[in-house]
Amino acid sequence: MALVEHKNLTIIRKNGPLPDMPFVPIKETILGKNYNLSIVFCTPKESQERNKMYRDKDYPTNILSFPIDTNEGEIYISLATARRDA
Predict the structure, then answer these.
(1) Residue 37 CA to chain centroid, in angstroms?
(2) What is the pTM of this model?
């Protein structure tokens, strides 16, 4: 499992390495330095489970985002599904 924690950003990937992207500058530019964001790279199965639970749609999706409050949120990304959709 790959895990990165940097100030107000947590990135988790359960299978494989993290994509090489400038996550911190992107997050700070879009959401600000004080926004707490968790990014989880999940499997298509996990994506499907969350999509069913929260949106009542029974299929894997590439990205799910959840605003928790005004200064905190989570993003789930299924790379396999995003690659397929691209």
Answers:
(1) 9
(2) 0.88
